[in-house]
Amino acid sequence: MPYSILGKVPRRLSLASAGISILGVARPFDAWAGLPATPAQTPGPWYPQSLPLDVDNDLVRIDGQNRNATGDVTHIYGRVMDTNGMPVQQAKVEIWQVDNNGRYHHVADGRSSLGELDPYFQGYGITTTASDGGYRFRTIKPVAYSRRSPHIHFAVTLPNSKFITQMYLAGDPLNDRDPVLSKITSLQERALVMVDLRPTPSLESGALGGNFDLVLGV
For residues 169 and 139, is the Cβ–Cβ distance under 8 A? Predict the structure, then answer.
C-alpha cells in the first residue's frame, strides 16, 4: 500500500502534527523558556549547486518515479524556536545529505568509488515552518562516508539571517572521530545536535523517527 500521509504540491507532509506533538508529548511554549541555542556548524562543500526538479520535504520519493530511495525511511521533525521558547513561523528549513551509497546529489561529487548515485533519492529538501514553528521531513537514515559520521545538514533562513548546523545520530560510534562534530567541545552543546532515532509505526510502517528542535540564538 502506498505511503498515504503525503499530499501534493508541493508535496508537503502535514505540519499540523509536526514536531514533538507527533508523539503526543507536546508542551506549552512557556515550558521551553531559557533554551540553549543550537550550535552552528559549517555548511561544508556539498550544498546543492542546482536544485532538483522535485523540491519538497519528502526526499524518499521523487515525483514521477515509481519506487522509493534505497535506505531506511526516516522522519525528522521538530520545532524552530528562539531561546525564549517562542515559535519561529514561516522560516525556510532546508536539509541535504548523502544517499545510501554515501554520495551527495546536485553537486560535483566525483567520489564514484563509493557507488552510483541513487536515482530515486532527492538529496535535498525544503519546507516552511508552521504557526507553531513545526517542520517535518521524510528522508532516509543518514550513513557515514569518508571521515564523517552519519549526519544531515540543516539550514534555517529568515528574512535577515541564515542559520546552518548539522544533525547527528545519538550513540553512533563514529561521532567521537568526526572532524566537524569535534569542533563542538562542550558535551552539553554536542547533545543539542544529537537525535535518537526510534521505530515510529504510528507514522509509517517500518520507518524510523526522531525529534530535532532548532533553537536560534540572537
Answer: no
